[in-house]
Amino acid sequence: MRDWIPKLLTSESITRFFSKVDIPDSPDECWIWTVGTGGDGYGQFWYDGVLYRAHRISYEYFNGPIPEGLIVRHKVCHNRLCVNPFHLELGTHQDNSDDKVREGRQAKGENNGNSKVSEGDAELIREFYNQRETQQNIADCFGISQHQVSKIVRGVNWI
């Protein structure tokens, strides 16, 4: 089991932590972290020179240590600023990825930051391929790999 952060969970630090949370009257609503966030949009809490993710502190405060290999996931709201313990659960990175795909929250096509071609490029690639251009020539033209061209023309990517 990963080292728990019991020294962080003192009454003083918890009071400071929850002073940064907007807790609505209904327990079903998100408890919104109101201060600092990281570049990934998750709430962040500084304590003793260490930066912690706010939803993880909330989970550990209400539920105890997070076992090695597991992450804290938003099971209800998928709101990165939410620290409501009733909205949080443990899972794996794969569980989290599967949720994103199943719920349509996974970036696709041009919205995927790793995408090297546009939707229009993908259409051109298929058109060149249908005109009997080799996959390697197409790849060279677009600055991508032959394998990527193959995935595009087979409909694995850019469906």
Q: Main traits of this protein?
A:
single chain, 159 residues, Homing Intron 3 (I-Ppo) Encoded Endonuclease, Chain A, 2 domains, two-stranded antiparallel ribbon, two-stranded antiparallel sheet, elongated
Describe it for me?
This protein has helices at 11-18, 54-63, 93-102, 119-130, 135-142, 146-153; strands at 21-22, 32-33, 44-47, 50-53, 71-74, 88-91. It is α+β, with helices and mostly antiparallel strands. It folds into 2 domains: 6-102, Homing Intron 3 (I-Ppo) Encoded Endonuclease, Chain A (Alpha-Beta Complex); 111-153. Strands 1-2 form a two-stranded antiparallel ribbon. Strands 3-4 form a two-stranded antiparallel sheet. The radius of gyration is 22 Å and the shape is elongated.
How does the SSE layout of this entry go?
Blueprint lengths: L10 H8 L2 E2 L9 E2 L10 E4 L2 E4 H10 L7 E4 L13 E4 L1 H10 L16 H12 L4 H8 L3 H8 L6
Helix pairs in contact: 5-6
